[in-house]
Write a structure and sequence with these properties.
Elements: E1 20-25, H1 30-34, H2 38-41, H3 77-92, E2 99-102, H4 106-119, E3 127-129, H5 150-155, H6 180-197, E4 205-209, H7 213-216, H8 229-236, E5 244-249, H9 253-260, H10 267-271, H11 276-281, H12 293-298, E6 312-315
Parallel strand pairs: 1-4, 2-3, 2-4
Antiparallel strand pairs: 1-5, 5-6
Length: 339
């Protein structure tokens, strides 16, 4: 087996206390801010030209050229500032992150990078790109995005984990008829996989996704049923850029005393059946990542058909939320007299 100091590069010994899960939405996106920005931001040689101070100074190279940004746009400058502010606030509040999983969308990867930069750990923590964290596929009826590869993201300066094997590959994300409930189950499956895979090493997990992610990755983790689509949409409309939800594992008394004594409790095994409902709903789907669904299932007691105990709770983050407003573009010509 692994030595204790080999468990994770960032956690030489298992962190004590309840584990924490942070779920964040990406920052301000170029397309929602500027509309059809690609035609006037690239010249005839397909070279990028910044046409507004809130547009990124540069955009990364990608194999599908400027058209690739149509369904996979970058952050605005304000978006990168929002993400950095969140990271700085997390650091100031004493938050530590040990494991990072991110939607493959460029806006999410950039948000993740700038949050980690604000925390001062961008060079230490590698980003695991997990397509299963992508938003609802029903919003992409016409065509799915073509995401940048890990190599392209690395070349662009992002600290990507090259050896990460996703639990749901981008090839598996083609069913644009995905129902709202299937979307919840997919995001919950990824949440459980990431928590299970990092349980032995311990420490806190950061998931970077989309507006819905704050609910779809937390809802069933706290023992509730997936929401109907109208409820989810009303939540999505109230999740501004770079919003962060926080969950904390509920420690049982005997586990707390075990930890204080330096022992390692195993909430999965002691609580029985914690992971099986998800896998049975997914038909025992195999996860192509670091653990298969069989190893997931063998680490919990499958005999228990009961729903998973409510072992996580949604709590108030130790830093304030961030509010912003949208503005119109200043046109200097309005100061001229009309001829």
């Amino acid at each position: 087996g692994q030595r204790e100091d080999e468990v994770s590069s960032s956690t030489p010994t298992r962190p004590l206390g309840p584990r924490q899960l942070f779920i964040a939405r990406h920052g301000e996106r170029v397309d929602f801010t500027f509309g059809l920005w690609i035609p006037y931001s690239f010249d005839k040689d397909r070279k990028y030209q910044r046409k507004d101070l809130n547009m990124p100074p540069s955009v990364p190279d990608r194999r599908d050229g400027p058209e690739g940004f149509t369904r996979d746009c970058p952050l605005t400058v304000i978006g990168t500032v929002q993400a950095k502010m969140v990271g700085e606030a997390m650091k100031e509040a004493g938050v530590t992150i040990h494991h990072v999983f991110c939607s493959p969308s460029l806006r999410c990867v950039q948000t993740c990078h700038h949050i980690l930069t604000g925390m001062g750990v961008a060079d230490k923590l590698k980003i695991n790109i997990e397509p299963g964290l992508f938003e609802w596929l029903a919003w992409y009826q016409d065509e799915m995005p073509s995401w940048m590869s890990s190599e392209e993201l690395t070349s662009a300066g992002y600290n990507i984990e090259p050896g990460y094997k996703p639990y749901i590959s981008s090839e598996e994300l083609q069913d644009t008829q995905e129902t709202c409930q299937q979307f919840f189950i997919r995001n919950f499956f990824i949440t459980q996989c990431t928590l299970q895979a990092t349980e032995e090493a311990g420490g806190n997990v950061l998931l970077i996704g989309h507006a819905a992610t704050l609910d779809t990755c937390s809802r069933q983790l706290v023992g509730k049923e997936p929401r109907p689509v109208n409820e989810l949409m009303s939540i999505v409309r109230k999740v501004p850029y770079c919003s962060v939800a926080m969950l904390e594992e509920v420690m049982e008394d005997d586990e707390t005393s075990l930890m204080q004594m330096g022992g390692r409790s195993s909430p999965t095994l002691s609580r029985g059946g914690r992971h099986s409902p998800t896998l049975s709903r997914l038909g025992g789907r195999s996860s192509p990542g670091g653990i298969s669904s069989m190893s997931l299932m063998s680490r919990s007691t499958i005999r228990t058909p009961a729903p998973p105990p409510k072992v996580w709770r949604i709590v108030q983050p130790p830093f304030p939320p961030m509010t912003h407003t949208s503005v119109s573009t200043f046109d200097w010509k309005m100061l001229l007299d009309k001829e």
